[in-house]
Specification:
This protein is mainly α. It folds into 2 domains: 40 residues; 85 residues, no CATH class. The chain has 6 helices and no strands. The radius of gyration is 23 Å and the shape is extended. It starts with 16 loop residues before the first helix and ends with a helix.
Length: 137
């Protein structure tokens, strides 16, 4: 078998980075929104740095994210249901457990990524799965 018998490798065209950069820099509406968002994010970071315990606010936001994300899976529990943790039905109890598991997995994952220097791997995902599935959700 000769080397010429093999097909040539696919070499994709280069991205038109220069044109993309020109388009972005020419889009004043995009730049304005981007600068405003950056300023607000900086204000938020400054606000967090001035809190005595920023984890309280971040924890509340991750709990809200847990509730909203779990809603995609069909849960009906609200943040107040999770905080009260006094379910009236078995379904509500399962919803609360699922949301709490999601919240714990997010917190664990956040710390684990910091510990791993933000290296995402299959092992990272495998470590999150048991937390999400705890108590047979």
């Amino acid at each position: 078998m000769n080397i010429s018998d093999f097909p040539l490798p696919h070499i994709p065209k280069k991205l038109p980075i220069t044109e993309i950069v020109k388009a972005i820099l020419g889009d004043h509406a995009f730049l304005k929104v981007n600068f405003e968002a950056t300023a607000r994010l900086s204000e938020f970071i400054g606000y967090l740095q001035n809190l005595p315990n920023p984890d309280i606010l971040v924890s509340a936001l991750t709990l809200q994210e847990s509730v909203l994300s779990s809603r995609v899976e069909g849960t009906l529990a609200t943040i107040s249901d999770v905080v009260r943790d006094n379910p009236e039905t078995e379904t509500m109890k399962n919803d609360i457990v699922e949301i709490i598991n999601y919240h714990k997995a997010m917190l664990f994952g956040q710390q684990d990524l910091v510990d791993r220097d933000y290296h995402f791997s299959k092992n990272f995902v495998c470590n999150l799965h048991p937390i999400l599935m705890k108590n047979n959700v």
